[in-house]
Amino acid sequence: MSAGDPGLLGPPTAPGPTPPTGPARERVIDLQGVTKTYGAAEVAVHALRGVDLVVEKGDYVAIMGKSGSGKSTLMHIIGCLDIPSTGRFVLDGVDVRTLDERQLAAIRNRSVGFVFQSFNLLARTTAQSNVELPLLYAGVGSRERRRRATAALESVGLADRASHLPSQLSGGQQQRVAVARALVTDPALILADEPTGNLDSEATAEVLGVFERCNAEGRTVVLITHEPDVAARAKRIVRLGDGSVLSDERLAAVDAVPSGAVHR
Ligand code: ADP
Ligand code: MG
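That is the input. Now the predicted structure with magnesium ion docked in place:
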């Protein structure tokens, strides 16, 4: 890909038609008729069966559904870790069908911050270096890496733990380091798969507080959760069943301030 490749670096494609209610907002996620089928013929698994989902900038969406309902498949597609079998997916203004592997990796690194259930921190590496890692991959110089990682650790309340190894941090602190790592590239979207699944209630509250502050700053958050208490703090709950959207419930306006965001 050349530096001038319009598919990735050009202006965002024009937004789709204005939704019937509310003002037009930038769409961070726009899935239309997305299917995902694993395998072929009689062993084919239809993990997604035609999902339409639009997520506007600044929303905070919880995705719920039974095991096997397609949540992780949907997250992989939204995070450009996998591509739909059929249908259209526009991420942050870019139609991912037009991208090759390298361009997918580039948009993933630029537009999405991932948070996983198991933190996925490098064990022998300090919090600071873990947070710097995505910037290293993006080719950012060392001074700028240090500055931005320090700011990201500050934003999750862990500036004083920068030189600690993951093993020297609690589960909640490790997950906050992982959130700092997700934030450090300044992505449009935070994508979290069961981020509180391994945490006790106090650590869950800490991590949700960080998501809520991120969201209050205008960042879009999409998280998968089994926990109704966690989902209830989002602005919208999308329920999946057997590869389809079963319900889509709005709890608070996209531009509302999340309830936990005022605490620090
Ligand atoms: P969830 O995250 O909601 O538990 P998944 O998206 O992981 O659901 O899985 C949806 C369906 O797709 C399940 O039936 C699962 O077994 C199947 N599936 C997921 N990944 C693969 C894969 N790589 N190959 C084959 N089948 C898969
Ligand atoms: Mg899953």
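The helical segments are 6-9, 71-78, 101-111, 127-137, 142-155, 171-183, 201-216, 228-231.
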